[in-house]
Design goal:
alpha+beta; flat; 33% strand; 2 domains
Length: 129
């Protein structure tokens, strides 16, 4: 909107040059059932063509704006990590009957993911982070 303070930000260095976006970062207060809730960060990213993406963060109030901007780029790698865990390591194949069993299953999956990551690094495979 007209009242939104937009800042041009270099979010990352991509293979085709810097990834630049217009970003607005503000503190807002959530509302639940008409009652005021906790304060959150509202991060708005304006994409080419004017489309807006909205993100909410419960990061501390003293969080640096640069750190919040970096967090915008972490969504895709995190989702990719979960997809790989499901596809290759059975992250979603559990039939546990206890909370401890579920935690053990996730621990083994994450250990396997760490092992594979270290192999990739050892053999210099390109990581898509």
């Amino acid at each position: 909107s007209e009242r939104t303070a937009w800042q041009r930000a270099v979010l990352a260095e991509g293979s085709k040059g810097p990834l630049v976006a217009e970003v607005s970062i503000q503190r807002v207060r959530e509302s639940r059932e008409g009652q005021p809730g906790q304060e959150l960060w509202l991060i708005i990213r304006r994409l080419e063509g004017g489309k807006l993406k909205y993100y909410l963060s419960n990061a501390p109030q003293d969080m640096e704006a640069e750190e919040l901007k970096r967090a915008l780029l972490m969504r895709w790698p995190i989702e990719q990590c979960f997809e790989d865990g499901k596809r290759y390591l059975g992250m979603d194949h559990y039939e546990n009957r206890s909370w401890n069993g579920w935690h053990r299953h996730m621990l083994y999956v994450f250990l396997a993911m760490l092992f594979l990551l270290r192999l990739r690094l050892k053999f210099k495979k390109k990581l898509q982070l």
